[in-house]
Design goal:
This protein is mainly beta. The protein has no helices and ten strands. 32% of the residues are buried.
């Protein structure tokens, strides 16, 4: 059974940075494309960033140039470095495979104050 545990969220001022982590188990992590997604209050869950087994990355236009996705296959962990945060980045952040194929974890709340 695949388990995804997100961490690293918090409250930060606009312009600040946070680093999210997602520890995965129950899958062959090194062969999996992984993604970060976010859901703001009252909105649908949206794609943020993805990384495949070759370390090729993709980003939504709204975070390109500010967020960086990376992975550590030895730790079965995918990261999201978020810089220059904006209030509109406020959301619960989730990781999953890309495309999403497994149950969602609890997510981690990111709140950016203006």
């Amino acid at each position: 059974q695949v388990q995804l545990v997100e961490s690293g969220g918090g409250l930060v001022q606009a312009g600040g940075s946070l680093r999210l982590s997602c520890a995965a188990s129950g899958l062959t992590f090194s062969n999996a494309a992984m993604g970060w997604f976010r859901q703001a209050p009252g909105k649908e869950r949206d794609f943020v960033a993805a990384i495949n087994w070759l370390d090729n990355t993709a980003y939504s236009d709204s975070v390109k140039g500010r967020f960086t996705i990376s992975r550590d296959n030895a730790k079965n962990t995918v990261y999201l470095q978020m810089n220059s945060l904006k209030p509109e980045d406020t959301a619960v952040y989730y990781c999953n495979t890309q495309p999403p194929r497994t149950s969602w974890g609890q997510g981690t709340q990111v709140t950016v104050s203006s």
